[in-house]
């Protein structure tokens, strides 16, 4: 490990010891079009409403679109950090919704495959995010090694699906990858069923996935909650405003609030923090 990377890690551990570890929540899905980015963004706003300092980290390095949901046009993004043109601090954008955004970059398919020169400013930049109570990582849709990297370092892994058969199949595919490539004792997989028409529909989808995950993968999958198929969601997308803000009393907003309440009850677990993330990518034992 290079001396400057080791120094970054030591400094981050020191910050975590002084201020507490940042909780890392990775939101992923087996396929696109299930509302993963929308859920990530609205979860972040719900956490901010509770007084948390929240960063949304857009880890879709091909089709980044958290900024579209928030209706912001970042001047700089992760590409500029990796190319040493800007620091992470310089691209960190505070939005009008009280959350911070690290905008994704195009042209880098796999963080894990960055060479040493590219990885160094990226890892150093992560240290400046240690001020956050919560980092919500919005991964790319589908299954690839960059998604697995961000899943592997999470305190909480949220898999988003819808009741559609193809979405359920792809969600199971993602859970299978997690079961085989992520350390099971650290994989806290929780399911969100989006676009449901009834409480029973969401529960039924979750139960089906939980059963087959237990039977065939020997892996526990918890049901975190559902989000109703609410017209306000599509209205908000068209207006590029988070539905949580657009209608605080909407059914979908209440669902997000309930999901955060459940996650808050999980917060008593010890978070691994950002230093764990850096260790994973540097292959350093804890």
Automatic annotation (TrEMBL):
CDD domains: FlhG-like. It holds the Pfam family CbiA. InterPro entries: CobQ/CobB/MinD/ParA_Nub-bd_dom, FlhG, MinD_FleN, P-loop_NTPase, ParA/MinD_ATPase. Keywords: ATP-binding, Nucleotide-binding. Residues 25-242 form the CobQ/CobB/MinD/ParA nucleotide binding domain. This is MinD/ParA family protein. It comes from Candidatus Haliotispira prima. The lineage of its organism: Bacteria, Pseudomonadati, Spirochaetota, Spirochaetia, Spirochaetales.
């Amino acid at each position: 490990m290079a001396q400057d990377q080791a120094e970054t890690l030591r400094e981050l551990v020191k910050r975590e010891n002084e201020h507490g570890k940042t909780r890392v929540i990775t939101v992923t899905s087996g396929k696109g079009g299930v509302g993963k980015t929308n859920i990530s963004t609205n979860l972040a706003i719900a956490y901010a409403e509770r007084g948390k300092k929240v960063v949304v980290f857009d880890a879709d390095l091909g089709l980044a679109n958290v900024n579209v949901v928030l209706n912001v046009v970042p001047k700089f993004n992760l590409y500029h950090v990796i190319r040493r043109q800007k620091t992470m601090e310089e691209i960190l954008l505070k939005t009008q919704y009280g959350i911070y955004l690290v905008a994704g970059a195009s042209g880098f398919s796999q963080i894990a495959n960055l060479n040493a020169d590219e990885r160094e400013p990226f890892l150093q930049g992560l240290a400046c995010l240690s001020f956050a109570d919560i980092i919500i990582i919005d991964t790319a849709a589908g299954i690839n090694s960059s998604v697995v990297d961000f899943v592997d370092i999470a305190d909480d892994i949220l898999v988003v699906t819808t009741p559609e058969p193809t979405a359920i199949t792809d969600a199971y595919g993602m859970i299978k990858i997690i079961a085989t490539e992520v350390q099971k004792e650290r994989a806290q997989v929780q399911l969100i069923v989006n676009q449901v028409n009834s409480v029973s529909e969401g529960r039924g989808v979750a139960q089906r996935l939980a059963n087959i995950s237990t039977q065939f993968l020997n892996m526990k999958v918890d049901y975190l909650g559902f989000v109703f198929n609410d017209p306000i969601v599509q209205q908000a997308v068209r207006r590029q405003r988070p539905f949580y803000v657009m209608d605080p009393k909407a059914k979908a907003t209440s669902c997000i609030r309930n999901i955060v309440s459940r996650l808050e009850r999980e917060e008593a677990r010890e978070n691994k923090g950002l230093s764990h993330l850096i260790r994973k990518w540097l292959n350093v034992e804890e």
